Amino acid sequence: MLGRFKYLVIIPLLFGLSGCSVILQKSNPNDLDKIDNLSSKLEQERKAREELLRAKNELEEQLKREVEEKQIKIEMLNKGLVITFVDEILFDSGKAIIKKNAYTILDRVADVLNNQVRDRNIAIEGHTDNQPIVKSQWKSNWELSTARATSVLHYLTDNKNVDPQRLSAVGYGEYRPVDSNDTTAGRQQNRRVEITVLPETIIKQKKK
User: Fold this and answer.
1) CB contact burial 52-82 (16+ within 10 A = b; e otherwise)
2) What order of strands is seen across the sheet that includes strand 72-77?
3) Which letter does DSSP use for residue 177 in this model?
């Protein structure tokens, strides 16, 4: 009776093991490639985040006074490392010409862009409040915000040798506020330029 019981136990066990073997053999070979690709992507994202965090720390050190005076904000967001300038630190009201005393600030930012995150794409955004343009060359806040973003782009490329392949500029006018336009303080926060260092690396275009 005992011997018969042993056979009853062994047979299901062998059947179970053979079943596992069949499942493994039927696995799609592409699954391993997918796992490898996912692992590689996660590693790239980890390295990108570490690189952006180092750049953030360096910027906070270089722009300590401006950050303390709330003229500049530096933060890590889902889209990347975002450097936000209150518009008055860079421009006079209704203007898109960078103030001369803002050059040193942009110089320090450019140094980090060129040395800490030299292979990352950079997006420059111009934003305004919802107050209509009065006595200005600009037709609307669209044009003003775009011109300001482009001015910053040209300063970085023309004066600080930031690779133009890394850069893009766009103006959103009044349509992406971060605060209420019903208060003076809120409108001040909405009038801004953002430089975002993106996690993605640049793809170099071959010169013809």
Assistant:
1) beebbebbeebbeebbeeebbbbeeeeebbb
2) 72-77, 80-86, 192-201, 120-127, 167-171
3) -
CA separation for the pair 191, 185 (Å, rounded):
10
pLDDT at 205: 58
pTM of the predicted protein model: 0.80
96: number of Cβ within 10 Å = 22
pLDDT of amino acid 38: 72
Give the span between the Cα atoms of 37 and 81, in whole angstroms: 25
Tell me the mean pLDDT in the region 46-56: 92
Asked if residues 153 and 167 have their Cβ atoms less than 8 Å apart, the reply is: yes
How far apart (Å, rounded) are the C-alpha atoms in residues 53 and 44?
Answer: 14
Say what the pLDDT of residue 143 is: 98
Nearest to 79 by CA among 195, 192, 173: 195
Q: Cβ distance 92 to 147 under 8 Å?
A: no
Give 78-123 pLDDT, tens digit per residue. 999 999 999 999 999 999 999 999 999 999 999 999 999 999 999 9
Q: What is the overall mean pLDDT for the chain? A: 86
Kindly give the residue spans of alpha helices, DSSP state H, lying in the chain.
2-25, 29-62, 64-68, 87-90, 103-115, 141-154, 160, 184-190
What angle do the packed helices 29-62 and 103-115 form, to 10 degrees? 150
Q: Which domains does the chain have, with CATH numbers?
A: 37-201 (3.30.1330.60)
